[in-house]
Design brief:
The chain has 318 residues and is of the alpha/beta class. It has helices spanning 4-16, 19-26, 30-44, 60-87, 107-117, 130-138, 206-218, 232-240, 250-255, 287-299, and strands spanning 49-51, 55-58, 92-98, 121-127, 144-149, 159-174, 187-188, 196-199, 224-228, 246-249, 260-263, 265-266, 273-281, 308-309.
Amino acid sequence: MLSLRQLRQFVAVAEAMSFRRAAERLNMAQPPLTAAIRQMEDDLGARLFERTNRITSLTAAGQVLHDEARRTLAQAERAVALTRRAAAGTLGSLRIGFVASAVRPLVPTLIAGFRETHPDVTLELTEAPTARQLAALLADHLDVGIVVLPLPAGAAPRIATRTLMKGHLVAALPGRHALAATKAAPLRLAALGPEPWVLFPASDGPGLHATILAACAASGFTPQVAQRAVQMDTILGLVAAGLGVALVPNLYREVGRAGVVFRPLAGPGTPVPYTLALAWRSADRSPALAAFLAATATASGRPRSRPRNHSGRGRPRS
């Protein structure tokens, strides 16, 4: 088996048609180069050059080896370059999950910014609630997710997070509801106590679900859930149909929704926080993941900060 070093020596001689010029190009003495070519011919059992007192041409066998050697050396150089790019996080693939409520304020900016600087990293995007993303992360079916905090206690210490956006929840009311009359005025959360609620299942977003129940408890009631839906857009559709009231991120108030009136909340248990964050396996050392975390620290418009696990303890960047 010929080595890459031997192939480089042969190609240099074949292109220079001179042992002396090839030796100068390779920065080596001529006698060892001449001996190396003779050893190659012995190993292959074929003459590679036509020569008298100098090289005149390649033999048929030498021409075949020249063509193949150039291809082999080019492929070897490509392998080295691709390996270095993969190690730098500029090549590879990344599986990204996101909650539906992150699509409007975050996902386009984060993904577009990363694709601009890392066009050769293949992205696989999956929409899923927070709990399903956590399960996929722990099962190595996702590399990074955009989730809603807080995470359940069982996620520690294997999941690290970094906050992307902080907001709060507002009341979403059917447009003809009596409490919708004064749109701009804050609404005491306790006023929603007697109302039927539209709420997502605790199994899909345990952290936010617990936060909502705690806020309601602070206002002296437990929500009477009449309808359940997973996606915030679906919840708003059910509210617009008059099937109940809900708490949704304030970003929906900024955009608006036909048939729905949004009111800020006041009173005990408020404001009810809503926080979007990146989540990933804290032990993951993937270069593509590291590149995404670095790129999104800038694209999200926030200064870079050390990642945290969901309990709040600082962790070194993965």
